[in-house]
Amino acid sequence: MKDKLNCPNCGAPITSSKCEYCGTVFHDFTNFNLYGKNIIRFNCNGKVIEAEVYSAMTEMIWETDGFPRMRMEFMVIDQKEI
Q1: Are residues 44 and 69 in the same domain?
Q2: Residue 59 CB neighbour total at 10 angstroms
Q3: Please, which pLDDT band fits residue 3 given cuts at 50, 70 and 90?
Q4: Which of 19, 52, 56, 73 could crosslink 77 through cysteines, CB 3.0-4.6 Å?
Q5: Are 8 and 21 in contact (CB under 8 A)?
Q6: In terms of Cα–Cα distance, which of 17, 33, 15, 14 is closest to 25?
Q7: Residue 50: its pLDDT value, please?
Q8: Dihedral sign computed on CA atoms, order 45, 48, 51, 56
Q9: What is the mean pLDDT of residues 55-67?
Q10: How many CB atoms are located within 10 Å of the residue 12 CB?
């Protein structure tokens, strides 16, 4: 893997969780279990929801640009508005 990555949308160096130039948001999945339980938070119509989910990666395709494209499915076990 490359030491430094560039934004797949504009090519700018990635220095934080959001591209400084085009605004693309990057998510850190280093602690995400691809096949098991996870706690995720997401924004739904202005409300922040915390959900316990069981995740399963259903497909991974390596593109020619070196970035994987993943398709995930989530089964919600429990959720609450926070």
Answers
A1: yes
A2: 9
A3: low
A4: 52
A5: no
A6: 17
A7: 93
A8: positive
A9: 81
A10: 13
Domain identity same for 24 and 54: no
The one-letter code for the residue type at 28 is D
Name the DSSP class of 16: S
- In this predicted model, what pLDDT tens digit does every residue of 5-55 receive, in sequence order? 888 889 999 888 889 999 998 887 788 888 889 999 888 898 999 999 998
Residues 54 and 18 grouped into a single domain: no
Q: What is the DSSP string of 27-78?
A: ---TT--TEEEEEEEEEETTEEEEEEEEEEEEEEEE-TTS-EEEEEEEEEEE
Residue 80 has pLDDT above 90, yes or no: yes
Q: Do residues 41 and 22 both lie within one domain?
A: no
- Residues 24 and 60 both lie in one domain: no
pLDDT given for residue 1 in this prediction: 42
Of 57, 25, 31, nearest to 43 by C-alpha is 25
Domain that holds residue 1: 1-29
